[in-house]
Amino acid sequence: MTTTRHAEIAGAGLGGLAVAIALAQKGWSVRVHERADDLRMFGAGIWLWENGLRSLDALGVEQAATARAKRIETLVARDHEGRPLLRRTFGAEDRLVLPPRADLYDALIARVAELEVEVVLRSTAVGATPHGELEIEGGKVLRADLVVAADGVFSRLREALLLTRRVDYLDEGYTRLLIPRRPEDPDTEITEYWSGSRRLLYDPCTDEVDYVCLCCPVDDEAGRRVPVDKETWLASFPQLGGILERIDDAGRWDRAMRVTPRAWSRGSAAIVGDAAHGQPPNLGQGANLTFQNALALAEYLDREPDVPAALVDWERRERPLTDHIQRWTDLYGRVASAWPDRFAHRRSQVLETVTRIPWVDRQMNKAARHRPVGAR
């Protein structure tokens, strides 16, 4: 007689729900703990690359998550003179789509319900042990074959497990929001506009809305202001008044963070998502790596009945790619934002040259072109 294995998961964000689905599909009983009163996602878009789409397909949510999403054909970065610095095209086996985050989250929630995963709201996890114990605020201790910490960059559980090596506050931040779409807006091209140390990212999202991301150094007080100071951004991007005028009082500014753990697991406890590899969104791979790592986690656990051994194998095989993308997304941010304004022309020259090198293209897109373990 086979005994059903049980997992307790802390955090019902994208990572926690993805792990819950992946495990439930392998026959695990799963309970997810969420400290909030409800399941809600903030209003922004999300980049889903080929690796993320393949992972979501294996989790049974790709179609629902991307039903309204724009299919991207090209991605272009332009300097202050409108010169293209970087161009990336997409094909049938190398896709990028851009749904609202809420559409993706709703698809994950629906799949969790379909698989009869238990989600407990107003349940705050405050500790975990390598022995498969999850401590809930108030003193209750729950035991499981596997405990998963999916509680974000500032994970309490990661630190309880002594898995934190570094949490770095980076020198830039982002305001992400949705704006009403107009008929004349580009339909299939993402454009990142650069002006000095500021960047404005325009993304077609759905037939109703576009996704906009404003990036600036943390010392740029006017640039990080919410509601967005449209006047100061218009001074940086005078050609983008048609976009900036549609920004309302919504949006939020988040400082870029980087998480470097000592390991992804200890005993029968693992960390996933931002708790394991929080990173700035420059390459748009944070969530995609979360989905592929969640899918792979369930796959390795299915192959190896010994949970600690499976977790070690999972990290050994999957972490190198995640670490690689963390390094390259950091490098992209430094190249984009760390040049003084007087060297903007030189930055353009360097980038035009470097981004044409095939090796650089392979490094930047290594995750996007990766076939996730467990994908169909």
UniProtKB/TrEMBL annotation:
<feature type="domain" description="FAD-binding">
    <location>
        <begin position="9"/>
        <end position="301"/>
    </location>
</feature>
<dbReference type="InterPro" id="IPR050493">
    <property type="entry name" value="FAD-dep_Monooxygenase_BioMet"/>
</dbReference>
<protein>
    <submittedName>
        <fullName>FAD-dependent oxidoreductase</fullName>
    </submittedName>
</protein>
<keyword id="KW-0560">Oxidoreductase</keyword>
<dbReference type="Pfam" id="PF01494">
    <property type="entry name" value="FAD_binding_3"/>
</dbReference>
<keyword id="KW-0503">Monooxygenase</keyword>
<dbReference type="InterPro" id="IPR002938">
    <property type="entry name" value="FAD-bd"/>
</dbReference>
<dbReference type="InterPro" id="IPR036188">
    <property type="entry name" value="FAD/NAD-bd_sf"/>
</dbReference>
